[in-house]
């Protein structure tokens, strides 16, 4: 997730807004302190897929 986000220059705060979570959730997930809940993971995969198609 970190590399994907950085490759696209998406700040943590923007990704948090896309996933309807707090920026702390993104930070903690990237540091391995927290795992995304299933619905958060689904939204992330949706955005990753849709951004790949538009690239």
Secondary-structure map with pairings?
Layout: H1 2-7, H2 12-19, H3 23-30, H4 38-54
Helix pairs in contact: 2-3
Question: Quick summary of this structure?
Answer:
The protein is mainly α. The protein has helices spanning 2-7, 12-19, 23-30, 38-54.
Describe this structure in words.
The structure is a single chain. The chain has 4 helices and no strands. With about 55 residues, it is mainly α. The radius of gyration is 10 Å and the shape is globular. The mean pLDDT is about 90.
Which key terms come to mind for this protein?
55 residues; mainly alpha; 4 helices; 0% strand
Residues in helices, as a percent range: over 70%
Residue-averaged pLDDT: 91
Largest sheet: none
Count all strands and give the number: 0
Number of helices: 4
- State the secondary-structure class: mainly alpha
Poorly predicted runs of 5 or more residues: none
């Amino acid at each position: 997730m970190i590399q994907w986000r950085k490759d696209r220059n998406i700040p943590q705060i923007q990704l948090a807004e896309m996933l309807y979570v707090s920026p702390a959730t993104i930070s903690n997930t990237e540091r391995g302190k927290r795992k995304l809940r299933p619905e958060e993971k689904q939204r992330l995969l949706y955005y990753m897929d849709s951004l790949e198609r538009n690239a």
